[in-house]
Amino acid sequence: MLSKVIKNFSLKSILYGLPLFYFLVAVSFYLGTYDSAQIKITIVQVGGAFLIFSWLVNKLETDLFENLKKNYLVVLPIVLFLLSGIVSYFISPYKLASANELIKRIVYCFSAVIIIDCFQDKKNLERLIKFLICATYIVCIYGVVQFIDTRFFPAPPAKGFDPFIWRWAFDNRIFSTFGNPNFLGDFLVVMNPIVLALFLKKRKFYLLFLWTLICFTTVFSYSKGAWLGFGVGLIVFAFLFAGFVYNAERKKKIILISAMSIATLMIVVGGIVFQLKARPDSSSFRIFTWQSCWEMINTHPVMGTGIGTFYLTYPSYRRPQIFFIEGMHNTESDHPENEYLEVFYDEGLIGLGIFLLILFMVLSVGFKNLAYFKNKKSQDTLMYLQLGFIAALMSQIFHNCVCVSLRFVSSGVMLWMLVGCILATALSCLDKNEEDSEASFNMPVVVKRAIQVLLLVITISAINVFVGFFQADALHAEAIKYSKAKNWDKALELYSKVIEKNKSFIMAYYFKANNFSDRWQNDDPEKALEEYKEIWKLSPNYVQSKFLAGMVYSKLVAYFNNQIAILANGNNEEALQNAIKNRETCFRMAVYYYNQYKMIDPIFPAVYYNLANLYTISGNYELAEKEYLEHINFPNKLREKPYNFYVENWKKRRMHEYAETCLKLASLEYMLGKKEDSEKVFLETLKYDGTNIDALKSLSMIYRENKNKEMYAEVVKILKEVYPNDESVQKMSDKI
Q1: Which of these, 121, 124, 26, lies nearest to 414 by C-alpha position?
Q2: CA distances from 70 to 59, 360, 436 (A)
Q3: What are phi and psi of 451, to 5 degrees?
Q4: I need a labelling partner for 161 at 20 to 30 A (CA). Which of 6, 481, 490, 648 fits?
Q5: What is the tens place of the pLDDT at every residue in 627-640?
Q6: What is the mean pLDDT of residues 670-682?
Q7: Burial class (CB within 10 angstroms; exposed 0-12, middle 13-18, buried 19+) of 486
């Protein structure tokens, strides 16, 4: 009796829980956490653990994988890909980061296997699709809300049609419940052919209306990758529909394929070209990232570096042009915008080979299944669903060549759902032996219950950890609010709680270290440096941590300089010598960490300024000059190998920064009495910023000292024309 209850409950949990799982991943978001998509991650982790537990319990009560054993050829590649992820975890130098990715790999692979095992019945597959259709309606309707909000309502902080605080997060681009236009696009390119296939079968208005909404929402996501995937999906759909479903003469089929292909290519390619012209940096960003990823791959091409470790290694290989393109220095690229390159980097040729084998196997089985339906002359719903699944998989395969990585859960769950659905649909057509379907595995009841209890304990423990990850993300968002309010004590308390709940949350360590540095009380400098060291255990080159460590040591240099000035007038020689020794140590460490960061980000002006300032204070003016010149001249290196794949005048993107550097260099030259050199550099400043008031004032002073009446008068004239409201300028005499 108990066995029957467990068997029925576990099966119902799978058949209804899995569709709900995909529904919730698609529609859920929570703005009370640091990452609005953290709720999706938690649903995948918690929901995945529950589904795996339910399935394993059910297998213990039924056939103990007998069904899968009979179809081992389609299940084996998925199992091998899971094993590849496990092996990659063990060889990874960064276990915590790899563990996060391995958890998702486990859920993805098990979800595909569960669908293959339990969703071969048409009724179960249709239930799954109904949940996804409901989710797509919600996603698209909210997308329309965002479209209306960004076109007809004022920008934040004013209230608009979209009631949520993240409105206008991507300007006029729709991102719906996914928090990112590219993630939204990946979901839509999957649902596009599935909904279209169902409409052609059922001819229901609600499906046609939904497909129209999908088209609209995809277009206004302005995601070029999504447009590419959408176009591929339609063309593949046209070929498959004409080849396997459409019962007409050859001429009509050719006309249908040609019309859909030409229309799709004209619209999609035209849109992509238009967007590339409007936002050319998105393509160059990807090319530079792919170049860096290829270099990373070559370090461990056979076995890979470790699953989920791309973002930890990438800073050491990142092209400097990325900083010019992004316009920021405190960001990280978590993924290379190409799933195949990332699998290659993570798991080497072996892992990539298994992944490609899965895709090849699934598509082969899917095409054969369509041929089976055609030969049977069956127009069953399953045939149309299979058509939609295959076109959707092809869409996602192409989309993920250039855009959002499948490592994001909202995209990852969809790919593995398609893998499972294509194989389950194909297996549903096989003849089944009634005796086999009722087969059960004889195991001593005590052993069976012991295993089930153990599985329950493991599942509850895992869910507790995953809920802790969610709580950590919420606490992190709260801690940031206290940091902004400069309530350091409360912020630090919360960051510590975040780390307790999720030891892999690198950003919490980073913010905690920065809070110690900002508070700067008692032993805060030492605490900040300890936190930076903890960061480097998890990620050796995390964001600007090396630069900020240099900042801590710079502040300590200033502190010890003050101590030395005070002690120099006293009689405590020992304390004076200790202060001098400590200053020298901090000076060396500051220079060390600044140079470490310079290797990661060679165009960040502040690192050059801080080094120059340290050298100036220590009296080493030659090295200070060298730092300024190095910053000014670095972009010239980007015309040389290996940086010259794409060449432009990168300085144009940061003219104000190079003007500032020239200004600082010229001021240093002037201070050192090199007035001719100083004049040249001030003039160089004007090449970057033609009306820089500080450069013009400094030149007027130099020309006044040199009695250069003509140049002095010209500079003063420019100043008075450009800065008519500046009092000091208007008081300047036109003559020497």
Answers
A1: 26
A2: 15, 20, 10
A3: -65, -40
A4: 481
A5: 999 999 999 998 88
A6: 92
A7: exposed
The 10s digit of each residue's pLDDT in 322-332 is 999 888 887 77
Note the pLDDT tens digit of each residue in 446-483.
888 899 999 999 999 999 999 999 999 999 999 999 99
| CA torsion angle 560 566 569 571 (round to 10) | -70
- Of the candidate ranges 118-122, 231-235, 689-693, the one whose mean pLDDT is the lowest: 231-235
Q: Can you tell me the distance from the alpha carbon of 118 to that of 122, in angstroms, rounded to the nearest whole number?
A: 11
Find the length of the chain. Answer: 736
Q: Which residue has the higher pLDDT, 642 or 586?
A: 586
Residue with tokens 């012991």: 450
617 token code pair? 């204070």
Q: Which of 535, 532, 531, 589 is nearest to 557 (CA)?
A: 589
Q: How many CB atoms lie within 10 A of CB 469?
A: 20
Helices (DSSP H) in 601-674: which residue ranges? 605-617, 621-633, 655-671
Contact between residue 693 and residue 666 where contact means Cβ atoms under 8 Å apart: no
- As to burial, measured by CB atoms within 10 angstroms (0-12 exposed, 13-18 middle, 19+ buried), residue 565 is exposed
Q: For helices 524-538 and 545-567, give the axis angle rounded to 10 degrees.
A: 160
pLDDT for res 277? 64
Burial class, 129, CB count within 10 angstroms (exposed 0-12 / middle 13-18 / buried 19+): buried
For a pLDDT cut of 70, what percent of the chain falls above it?
95
CATH class of the region 465-539: mainly alpha
**Vertex 332: Cα angle to 323 and 463 (nearest 5):** 170
Q: Is the pLDDT of residue 45 over 90?
A: yes
- At residue 177, does pLDDT exceed 70? yes
Helix (H, G, I), strand (E, B) or coil at 531: helix
Q: Where are the domains of the chain?
A: 2-442, 465-539, 703-736
Cα separation, 564 vs 558, in Å, equals 10
pTM of the model: 0.91
